[in-house]
Amino acid sequence: MANEAKTEEVFRGILDSLGYYSTNSIIVERQQSDAPKIQKLLRSASKSAKGSGAGYPDFIIRDSSYPQLLIVVECKASATEHESQSRKEYSKYAVDGALLYASFLSKEYDVIAIGVSGESVQELRVSNYLHLQHKDIAHSIFGNDLLSFEDYYKGYIKSDLKYNQDYESLLSYSKELNDLLHGKKIPESIRSLLISAVLIALENEAFTASYKLQKTAKQVTKQIVGSVREVLDSSDIPETKIKNILHAYSFIEINSTLTSDKEFILNLISEIDENINSFIRTHGYFDAIGQFYVEFLRYANSDKGLGIVLTPPHITQLFVELAEVDKDSVVLDSCCGTSGFLISAMRRMIEDAKSDSNKIDDIKSNQLIGIEFQDHIYALATSNMILHGDGKSNIIQGDCFKVNNEIKDKFNPDVALLNPPYRNNTNDPYELNFALNALDMLDKGGKCIIILPMSCSLAQKGDELELKRKLLERHTLDAVLSMPDDLFHNSKVNVSTCVMVFTAQKPHSNHKKTWFGYWKDDGFIKVKNKGRIDLKNNWKDIKSQWLSAFYNKDDVPSSSVKHKITYKDEWCSEAYMQTNYSTLSKLDWIKTIRKFIAYQFTNNIINEVDKSPVIQSPLEIKGINWKEFNAGSLFKLYRGVSSGSVTTTENKEDSGDIIYLRPSNNYSIKNGYISRVEIKDDSIFPSSTLVMGNTGAGSHTWTYLIAEEFIPNNNLTVLIPKQNLNIYQKIFLINIIEHNRYRYAYGRIPSNKRFMDSKLSLPVDADGEPDWGFIENYIKTLPYSSSLSKIT
Question: What is the pLDDT of residue 305?
């Protein structure tokens, strides 16, 4: 007969061998706890079906050195009682019970939940889960072994889950700090400099030990600047650069708030140490200064006008992996901002150096190069590198277009990672100029990875087209990756972007196929007061899939494609990917029919709704032959009338007034009425006509069948089939068109030419022509299709 006591004794013996009982700071409690907070949290944690009363796991383990972390263990004798499929049979299964207790304790702690089953060491089963504080679910972690408390802690503190939790906390603190500094009337433009100065001063042990002992606020601010000076002096930064940096920090000793409010400045230093420094110490190699810089300027106009946005940290890390940076790489960022790319590169290079101190010193001294034009951002960039242990920082203040030869001759970089400033004024350089400039500084065969507005890849004329020509004339375009539309949400910048990957100093071959990736979903979502974060911890798996496809240049349906291009072509996956229509189902067309019928009924175009199909025998679309057709071979396109050229009324004032339509993501497209006498006849379209939105992030490509005479505005494209089609066939086409919506965005709208050149797939007959008969009958087999027969 199974004996749970045996399992507990086996587990206790393993704890003993792992040092749990010989370490004074570790407390192991069995089925109870002396800690009042734990008692309170578990007072209603019963495993019974009624769920009332207190409940305790078989073991509760804590270490006074790490008070935020608990380990809870539940044991079962039989391996068949290890873990249920639902993980909700709390009293019967080991894992389920451990997770239940973790869910209660996670209100105040980070909890490692361990399920153990088996009556001997040989048959023991172990499952480890991590349930972070204030999170809804636990995640499997650490494999299936029991570890020492120290190893559990190291794995927990360095896990992606903990990083995401701490990053969310850092984002929240950045907003709190911004509000605090705003309340103290500290200007946005100097807030990041203040933070960076405090962080550098905290690198000085004498400052850390004595700043709280100063008698006045003026003494504290003077000590901050003096400590920054000492840290800079101990680096290899030239004296001229040190003077420039100290000049940027000079406001600290004269700002009225900082020099008069001792309690405020002392609390500020303490909070920065607790919230920012602790994050850097724990997770390392993170552009915290850049994160705060962006937060402080989110509501200011100064740097947004300069086109400066912070590259999200998961993207700077992705760039490093795309470029396959290693310990021997020489990495350049020619418009480095706060040094986010260089910090991510440093992390990877030092990891690859595997504790070789000489190599690590060489990496920091000679293999990381940044160029920054603006004085205050240069100070932030240099400070950031110093905070990450690069006291010999090669951050050069200057114009990347003027120091390029110096950089190439002195450093011979072979990797460039950059996010150039976006062009806002006619006198600003084009973004592609930065790509060309960086590539020209790289050694032959070097890799340049640059994130740019999508418009750069689409350029069809003027200076940008000429830059595309020069790029391919000198360098090879290996890949272009379409990025999430809201990637820069945290910087309050709404721009569609792509990443271009080049090989330097090798002209693009006419035979070369460029790899295009559709990387629109990185798993990040927007959360109120936290910005865009990896809330569901999906990024790790998504990144792995992306990198695998990129390294192998896989053709993945609806995700990537290889295609030969010239400088005249669009450089994006949306132009070349084949749409996967197999994901369309009957439910999609039924939904389209219902939306159309609902609009007609609501607007009194029809008086009743018939839910029945016209044809009772079902038809299946699976297994039918499909073929691609140019949209231009199927439709004639017409644009509507601009709102500024007509007078509209809110209501129908005369029987001859005609409805005026605008784009939308549903059938709420009415935009008033226009008198028939005011408009030309060729701007009026008959009922049963298809229209498609041609602009707007939320409305482009959505397609509607209009069942009354109408006038479209110029943000709608009228689609007139070249063949005489009935209402059933047009309903079918709506889903085909909308299924290609992914091809378009605010930066790549479905213009007439772009849509006409696109491919649409349709079921075909034996001659390879659209099988309109099948298409009609398929719609007729669907619910509500009888209502369509009432509309002409």
Answer: 41
Q: Where in the chain is the domain with CATH 3.90.220.20?
A: 586-788
The domain covering 586-788 belongs, at the CATH homologous superfamily level, to DNA methylase specificity domains (3.90.220.20)
Best CA proximity match to 710, nearest among 605, 592, 565, 573: 605
Residues 20-37 have a mean pLDDT of: 94
φ/ψ of residue 493, rounded to 5: -120, 125
Give the pLDDT confidence of 654-683 residue by residue, as tens digits: 888 999 999 988 888 888 999 998 899 999
For domain 4-157, give the CATH number: 3.40.1350
Contact 740/758 with Cβ under 8 angstroms? yes
Q: Which residue has the tokens 């700090």?
A: 177
Digit-coded pLDDT (tens) for 71-95: 999 999 999 999 999 999 999 999 9
Interatomic CA distance for residues 352 and 770, integer angstroms: 57
What pTM was estimated for this model as a whole?
0.86
Give residues with Cβ within 8 angstroms of 188, minimum separation 6: 182, 296, 297, 299, 300, 302
- State the Cα–Cα distance between residues 183 and 160, nearest whole angstrom: 34
Q: In terms of Cα–Cα distance, which of 377, 374, 380, 446 is closest to 407?
A: 446
Taking only the tens place, the pLDDT of each residue in 298-339 is: 655 444 444 467 899 999 999 999 999 999 999 999 999 999
Query: Amino acid letter at 255?
Result: N
Query: Could you give the CA distance from residue 791 to residue 601 in angstroms, rounded to a whole number?
Result: 11
Integer Cα distance of 633 and 267 in angstroms: 70
Within the chain, all domains assigned CATH 3.40.1350 are found at 4-157
